[in-house]
Amino acid sequence: MYTIRNLLFFITVSVMIYGCATIRKFPASSDLAETRLMDAELQTPQSMTIYRDSLLLVMNNLNTNPHHIRVFDIAGKKAVNNLFPAGSKKGGTMAFMSFGISDSLVWVFDVAKNGFITANIDSVLKSNGSLEYYSEYRIKPQVFYYDATLLNRNEALLSGNYDTDEKLSYVKFADTTQNKKLLSYLEDSAIGSSRFKKTSYESFMLLKPDKKKLLLACRYSDQFELLDLTTGAHKKMKGPIGFAPQLAPFEDNSGRPVAAPDNATMFGFLKGFATEKFIYLLFSGNEIKSPRRFYSNQVLVYNWEGQPVKQFNLKNDIVCFSVSSDDKTLYTLNPRTRVISFSELKW
């Protein structure tokens, strides 16, 4: 099902000056008015997603609460439940970077347990949220992946295995003989076999809701890649500036080479969201010494062919966002005020 047939490289032409770099101008740009929706009620809200255009799920970073995720009712403007109990017991969640919703399954990828923790979102919202409602799907052998996304109860995509050639892999929990490498580091001329380069180009994934296409967006570069999961067609695209990662070589606790930020490091894409029509990316472009390095007020919109569509500019910096399925409403989370707001998107 998942094979790679073509690797296509597209180089975009920049047309606008941005400091000492050039920035690609979007076909349209508009400023958004933000309307306060509700307080996130969390000390360090970090990520957010949306379910059926009615619920917002907000993850708390550096969690000290009994649960990792709080659920908010958009129409009622209030918190209605908590998900993913913290803990090491079966069904409990210890530490994770990735979370999302696949059909009716809400999931996190627990890096400590090296696997997915999942639950039927409708069932768990109606329950007391105890561990018995959660299932575990562990990945073997124990390998670090930078990002992961669940396709269904049987399949998942994993990216960023820096100790192998697996840039992107497909795994099937029930039958590991069907696991496949979808993208190779060696076939990427900018990376090759260098572990330093692999960590320099670390990327997060966005899955199209119909599960036919996938985006990989770089953290320390404004490069992104598009993969058609049906045909295997692959594109590598440059973002608004087109800068490469600027990091320093370093050794981790095991003596393995990794990339570490230095004074020249710039941040690329911070967060993203996918709808059937568009890809939304929160773009930084800030240096590591900037107090805004983890935040931005620029949301860039691309179609699923990688072509720029529109740039939305917010008054305030945000740390994450979600978009309604009809592409009409943007929900944002301000990291300083910890307030969830919404904006009407006009095309």
Automatic annotation (TrEMBL):
Taxonomy of the source species: Bacteria, Pseudomonadati, Bacteroidota, Chitinophagia, Chitinophagales
Organism annotation: Sediminibacterium ginsengisoli
InterPro entries noted in UniProt: Quino_amine_DH_bsu
Name this protein carries in UniProt: TolB-like 6-blade propeller-like
Pfam family, one: TolB_like
PROSITE patterns in alphabetical order: PROKAR_LIPOPROTEIN
Entry-linked SUPFAM superfamilies: YVTN repeat-like/Quinoprotein amine dehydrogenase
